Amino acid sequence: MKPIRILIMALAIVGLTQTATHAQPLRIVIDEGVIEPLPVAIPTFVAAGGEAAQYAAEITRVIAADLTGTGLFREIPASAHISSVTSFDAPVAYADWKAINAQALVVGAVEMAGGGNLVIKFRLFDVFSGAALGEGLQFSGTVEGWRRIAHKVADVVYSRITGEGGYFDSRVVFVSEQGPKNARLKRLALMDYDGANVQFLTDSDDLVLAPRFSPTGDRVLYTSYETGRPQIYVLDVASVSRVALDTSGGNMTFAPRFSPDGQSVVFSLEQGGNTDVYTVGLDGSGMRRLTDAPSIETAPSFSPDGSRIVFESDRSGTQQLYVMPTSGGEAKRISFGPGRYGTPVWSPRGDLIAFTKQNAGRFHIGVMRTDGSEERLLTASFLDEGPTWSPNGRVIMFTRETQGESGAPALYSVDISGRNLRRVATPSAASDPAWGPLQN
Amino acid sequence: MRTGYIISGIGHGLLMLWLLFGGLFLRGPDEPPLRVSEVSLISGAEFAALNEAAQAPRPAPAPSPPETSPAPPRRPAPPAPEPDPEPAAPEPEPEPEPAPPAPEPEPEPEPPAPAPEVTPPAADRVTNEVVEAPEDPLPEGPVLIEESAPAEATEPQAPVEELPAQAPEASTTQIVTEADRPDAAPTSSPRPPRRPDRPAPRPETVEAPAPDPEPAPTPEPTPPNNAAIDSAVNDALADVLGEAAGTPGPSGPPLTSGERDGLRVAVSRCWNLGSASTDALNTTVVVLVQMSRDGRPEGIEMISSNGPTQEATRIAYEAARRAVIRCGTSGYGLPAEKYDQWREIEMTFDPGNMRIR
Amino acid sequence: MKHFTMAAMLIGALALSACDRNSRFGDDAATAGAGGIVPGSPSDPTSPAYFEQTIGDRVLFAVDQSTLSAEAQDVLAKQATWLMENPEFSAIVEGHADEQGTREYNLALGARRASAVQAYLIDRGVAPNRLRTVSYGKERPLAICSDESCYAQNRRAVTVLTAGAGTS
Lengths: 440, 357, 168
Prior knowledge:
The structure holds three protein chains of three kinds. Chain A is mainly beta.
């Protein structure tokens, strides 16, 4: 139907100058292509004034770093540019950009708005189509927040070109480590997703483990040995104050995660050597036991719709992944490959579960569908563990620890395609990353 | 949901305008550092939604004028030579993949006055706003940058066929596909003035109007926005091939399998899904390409798609369009005597073998 | 070495003079002798140092296991005896795991090990309210190399004495 209409129209059009005699179009199927970073040109944003020029340069650099850091883009260096952009509103010299094979072009401008604010506007162009992709956008914010503005611009560009949601304007909470392997000092820290703006949330007096962001990013759950035994705490990010999660009793509690609505916590509680999964309200009310088995049940994670929980259990004899309703009840095993599976984390899109796999002396970060099918391992090393998802579900960050006496952990990220493995810069050794939501 | 976003977006946009033009910047410099929320006008998600929304329906103000014109012939233009040299091979750049360690720190030194590290940075409020066409502070409606912009537009649209002096030249005579092209840096970039014609863009019409965007993955993905782009695209194509189409040609015998293969391979080489979303990697699109007599694409439109979302369809279509245009810049080398056989080519881009899995 | 000899002698002395419910204990003390006792030192049977070094404050486990080996039971029996003879002390049993495992699982595994030790000590007569457990998972390795020689030492449960008679 549609093809017919098109054809008719096409014929009508073509008919103006040609005979419309041919019939069917030639049909071909392209089922092979290439997977390469898209070449993008990001000429330094046009600045109005000297002060703005400084920001323009830095902001442009951060945008470029964000985009190329995804592994999906390749920046064409300024030295290769044929024309320069000196005015935000000047016509785009497409031919010049085509000539250097820039397939996308980001043009922007920065100006000081007074009151300690910056205004940034930008446009994105599809060079070969000779057209803008979407409309121009403008952001403004404080000069101190220039990095966030840059991340926001990059998020929009990324999103328009890839079709994925952005994730650059987000933060990661993690454990910063120092000291020898047998006497490590650990403290909670917060940073931008790219490692900038590190801020410590606790001192290193007490051992702290595995922080987890709340869905809105304003709170962090973590485990601390503050009282001498592992207990879960809730930390308010803005005030950096914390309170113990009331799970009544002196049992060891750990492996907490927020429910999607941020109102409750699913965690592990150990009693008499037996660890099971429980939930409790953020205010300590309504604690419920979700599993009751003599085996270890831990590392629970909610599905984004809040209906199910994936966790690990060694009830079969080795660590494996199971999914159960949020209310508890029968759990279905979803991992069946060789080796041990742990630390499952449901992706924000809901379609995949990331996990740590231990097999044949190696550790891997992998993903599988929520029914356990289509397992894919993304990494392999002496010790990789603890995956956390980027807000858009496209990237996974995790802990990679090196071997030996001087071994230390560091944060890495990898695209869910298994490409683009990168180390995330941190000031010192780091572990247990938890990616927060896109900021507002 | 979407409505909410739109309303929110409009509200935010107005607020933004007020902030911008009203000159009042409420945010005092001294707000608590970690507070981000208050000032921010729009969240990332809203952003995305807005963008989408913006792309989709696009209200009246839509600046894109030309497009409106109904069915215009997609027509190529003047026979003129063609223009730009073309790019250089993309050079892939593999990516190590598993290579672990390479730490590549990318910390960034901090420039200007960034927030100090360890101390709570001022993260803060970034007000963003989507400037939409209507009121946007941006000078011209953003969208149309195409029109306004480029040199091309500048010259009014000349009626068909006239090709002014096209500057170009340089390039082409030979078919250099990007693949072969040595390296990029172009030596001569023709850019400018040329541009003759470009009849009114072609409609794209056939595609879905833009009624209901979100729902179903209907095949009609091309959001209106695309219409604008398409017209631009076609213009661009026209430019590129400035040549005119000419007369009908003899319809020769069918293409040989070798000829078809050559075409398939040529397009494949430029079909890059490296920056496509995972959803787009699960989207097959079928496009109809109008070919000029010298073997170059001069019009392209999407016929169907099975994208799970409109966004996925858009991305998949854009990737297909880039492939057709980039690799066809110098022509696909199809046998001229069989022009009638390939005057229109329906290309199905099926990423089934490339998806992430 | 010297310590060891002295310890052996002390054990013998203890075996001969104290409530020896453990026959193996007595066997070990075959070469009993007498020696000076320095209060608080490993030679002082009532000192924590004696508990830690002479009896041994830790037991080891096989990979991913929390069952007590015969050797471990041996050590724990002595620990139980000591604890009953020195009621002014309580103990915290720390469970540990080697680095070859995920953080959460290792915490749970360490808890299992600590609990196994606790249960054994209670079974041997130590009052439950004098024993607590805590797991460190893989957070506090004793040996830091990344091979089995170190891992074996890290898969442990350590009985750490604390002053006080214990709580409920």
